[in-house]
Design brief:
Layout: E1 9-14, E2 21-26, E3 30-35, E4 43-46, E5 52-57, E6 64-69, E7 73-78, E8 87-90, E9 96-101, E10 108-113, E11 118-122, E12 131-135, E13 142-147, E14 155-159, E15 164-167
Antiparallel strand pairs: 1-2, 2-3, 3-4, 5-6, 6-7, 7-8, 9-10, 10-11, 11-12, 13-14, 14-15
Amino acid sequence: MYHEHTHCIYQTIWSPHAPDIFASAAGDHSLKIWDTKCPRSIQTIMAHHNEILALDWNKYREGVLVTGSVDKSIKVWDLRFPDRELLCLSGHEYAIRRLKCSPHTPSIIGSVSYDMTLRLWDIDHSTNHHLLKVYNQHTEFVLGLDFNLHIPGQIATCAWDEEIVILQPHL
């Protein structure tokens, strides 16, 4: 058992690069990196000025994670430089509820929010502040997001509106 966070833990996720490493994001504004062989976290980043609701590892860029917060921002982190984010992406109007890095394209991130949208970002291209596209098919809070591992670019979202939306954006 790990007891370092001081507020609700919203998400944990295993590293795709190391079998004993996982990350956690919490309401105490922190992103923590853990090694199952150690009794305490191995790294703590005060990542946002508000609760962190969403977290994902980049599968292609070792040590790179993304966090999403109640502060409406998405931050890209390189664990080698924990004192500052690589990027801060803004555009959502409400809290970020879920984030996913594309399993097919290293620079693509998807985010969903209480603003009822899915947004796609390209962290390698700064055109339009890295924002590629906004989708607003839902009529309530969007809570779930996943990329299809078998069909590149295909995305599923789900929301409080009791709808599942499948998209095939051209990325």
